[in-house]
Design goal:
It contains 17 helices and 30 strands. Helix 4 crosses helix 5 (212-223). The chain is of the alpha+beta class and 686 residues long. It has a ten-stranded mixed sheet, with helices on both faces. Strand 20 and strand 21 (573-578) form a beta hairpin.
Length: 686
């Protein structure tokens, strides 16, 4: 689930060091049975000013419960307590991935929501870093890269051959460290959660599983039904849904095309997106595209485009919203931005986490589903790109597939509320309906115009669904519309005036342009366009603001409230108000932005170690540097100098440190009064 808060996550460095050092020291002991480890407390100050104690700890469990002589591992958690006198059973959050951090998600939820969040859930909340992930020990995070040739066209067979060689060495590394990779599966993880429940003294718990976390939640419901009060599943992945059906991915693309056809700009310039894409892929199959970037020829194949689309269709915002523009550009032989993206992806493509592989490979698929996938591959527009490469590499890992009973439909009378995006290509609406067939108490809510990672859980109608379920056990079945998709529009294609808007002149619009700061320190920018304003939110992109009247504006998306600009007695715009929140216009001069050459930007590209948050990746996109942490929105950076860049909207600044050879070796990240140093992990190649 994506946080609505738009800033790069920064954790207090002292807390990370303390937590990791305690876990590391305690991890030297390997008791033979499940037990607890000492917890660490820290105070989190939420946006509303409320204070909440973060209780960090871990549960020690056998690595492999089927062996009496198993080594022990630690599964880390954070707990925040609800202060209400009458509380529901605690909420255990299970992150997706596999490999996402439940600890970080829960911290962001409480930081964003404060006391109001606990009013909505009415219980304690526990975030878990599942075995092999995040702050748990051992963490199976890997910095190993596949070392693809940046210039060569993506070829499925060649890429798999290269991956198999790397994975063989990777397996040897983990085995030499004493890690039993076969033990990192969903059944063992479900038993870890029950062990943590018992350690914390809860007789009953509520599960919140997101994406893969819902797969884990259903395993927990099957193995430990007597301790489950109810379950909230967002982006549902059933017991036999690990490998994706190619035609379901295509169905999501076809559904997206229906939204594209309703857009005033794209209805004119891309009336048949799927047909245009099909013709495009046919051409690439016969003759790959070639484009020169930095004096090197980059080759783009049909498979490259299929992979990119399979990635982007997963999320509407920052993904599928750009698909029509990309297809339009590619159909006009404009490949430059895609070539730049492929260069960066080929550079940084790697294992990421051995835990991701082991969990999914162990879950596997039924024989019947595997046969259907093979039948659909030649029929599907994107082939089997959605499953690449994990399904093809199952035999390279020493991980047996769990037995057939693991993948059987879950039959249960435990109350289950499912929330799924209309355009979800990873865990489609069909998953929800299939899962519900054997659940006697189940509600399904489909949220329109959203995908896998961007269901707006903070939207009032959606918030009411999960809050009513968590606090009162009320099940809801409904379709919730969220308005039209805000597709990206390239320069040169004029956006027509919204039918409900009034036309203001350029002089009337430009007085509102500038940067505005909310009370929590976040900065948003407003700029004028030919017939509207454009509001930029860090990590969420641009939103059109249309004039209701002079000073009053609305957006076509429900994520953005109506905005009213206010002036002082002299007629100068001083602030705007939206949904009772005030953002003051900045009187000070914004930092002077400078332009960096491509070589200067290239020197900064790479990955930087943010501890258990993962690696901050920096790459070039559309002649600008972009930064992103795993599971966080991407941020466009603007240069203040060759060694100092900022994200104005997030209030963040990155200062790069060089060695005597002028090579970047680390960075210092400053944001909202916090400072973090991060060493460079990956040296880029020319």
């Amino acid at each position: 689930m994506k946080s609505r808060k738009t800033k790069i996550a920064v954790i207090l460095a002292g807390l990370v060091v303390l937590a990791n050092s305690v876990l590391s020291v305690l991890g030297q002991q390997k008791p033979p049975t499940e037990s607890s480890m000492a917890s660490i407390a820290e105070v989190l100050i939420a946006e509303d000013g409320s204070q909440h104690e973060l209780e960090y700890g871990s549960v020690v469990v056998p690595e492999n419960r089927s062996r009496g002589d198993s080594e022990s591992i630690q599964v880390a958690y954070v707990r925040l307590r609800c202060n209400q006198l009458s509380k529901a059973p605690p909420l255990f959050y299970l992150a997706g991935g596999p490999g996402g951090s439940g600890i970080e998600v829960v911290k962001r939820l409480v930081e964003n929501g404060g006391d109001r969040f606990f009013d909505l859930i009415g219980s304690d909340i526990v975030g878990i870093d599942q075995r092999g992930a995040g702050m748990s020990e051992p963490c199976l995070k890997s910095d190993t890269l596949f070392e693809f040739d940046e210039t060569q066209a993506g070829d499925r067979a060649d890429m798999l051959e290269a991956m198999r060689l790397i994975i063989g060495r990777e397996v040897e590394i983990w085995e030499s460290r004493g890690v039993e990779l076969a033990a990192y599966n969903t059944r063992e993880s479900a038993d870890d959660i029950d062990a943590l429940r018992a350690q914390l003294g809860y007789s009953k718990i509520t599960l919140w599983g997101a994406s893969y976390g819902s797969h884990l939640a259903m395993c927990m419901m099957r193995r430990h039904p007597h301790v489950i009060h109810q379950a909230l599943l967002t982006g549902p992945e059933g017991p036999d849904h690990t490998w994706k059906m190619p035609l379901e991915t295509e169905a999501a693309l076809t559904q997206l095309a229906k939204h594209v056809a309703k857009n005033a700009v794209w209805a004119e310039h891309l009336p048949d997106m799927v047909g245009t894409l099909r013709d495009l892929l046919d051409r690439l199959k016969l003759k790959p595209a070639r484009v020169v970037v930095d004096r090197r020829e980059i080759v783009i194949s049909e498979f490259d485009v299929q992979r990119v689309l399979a990635q982007d269709i997963g999320t509407v915002r920052d993904g599928a919203d750009a698909i029509p523009e990309n297809v339009w550009r590619w159909s006009r032989e404009n490949w430059h931005s895609l070539a730049e993206r492929l260069i960066e992806e080929r550079r940084k493509d790697g294992i990421g986490s051995a835990m991701t592989y082991t969990m999914d490979i162990a879950s596997g698929s039924s024989q019947e589903r595997a046969e259907r996938i093979e039948q659909q591959i030649p029929l599907a527009l994107l082939g089997d790109a959605a499953n690449f490469p994990l399904r093809d590499l199952a035999l390279e890992w020493p991980v047996p597939m769990l037995n057939a009973s693991f993948r059987e439909p879950l039959q249960s009378d435990i109350p289950v509320q499912i929330i799924v995006g209309e355009l979800d290509a990873r865990t489609p609406v069909s998953n929800a309906h299939e899962i519900s067939q054997t659940l006697s108490n189940c509600g399904i809510v489909v949220v329109g115009s959203t995908g896998h990672n961007d269901v707006p859980l903070g939207l009032s109608e959606v918030k009411r669904v999960w809050s009513d379920f968590l606090k009162e056990g009320i099940l809801t079945s409904a379709i919730i519309e969220t308005g039209p998709i805000r597709f990206t529009i390239p320069d040169g294609l004029k956006v027509p005036l919204h039918p409900n808007a009034v036309l203001l002149s350029g002089d009337q619009l430009k007085i509102y342009a500038g940067s505005y700061r909310f009370t929590d320190g976040r900065i948003v920018t407003v700029r004028d366009a030919d017939n509207r304003l454009i509001l930029t939110l860090a990590g969420r992109g641009d939103f059109n603001l249309w004039a209701k009247s002079e000073g009053e504006f609305f957006s076509e998306t429900s994520h953005i409230p109506d905005i009213t600009f206010q002036k002082d007695d002299s007629g100068e715009v001083i602030r705007f108000v939206g949904a009772k929140r005030i953002a003051k216009k900045l009187d000070r001069q914004l930092p002077k932005i400078v332009s960096l050459s491509r070589e200067e930007l290239r020197a900064l590209v790479g990955q930087f170690d943010y501890g258990h948050l993962g690696a901050l990746s920096l790459w070039i996109e559309e002649q600008q540097l972009v930064a992103q942490l795993p599971g966080q929105p991407k941020m466009t950076l603007r240069a203040l100098s060759a060694d100092k860049l900022c994200c104005l909207e997030a209030g963040a600044q990155l200062s790069f440190i060089r060695n005597d050879a002028a090579e970047v070796v680390s960075l210092v990240h400053a944001q909202h009064g916090m400072v973090k140093s991060a060493a460079r992990l990956v040296q880029t190649k020319d």
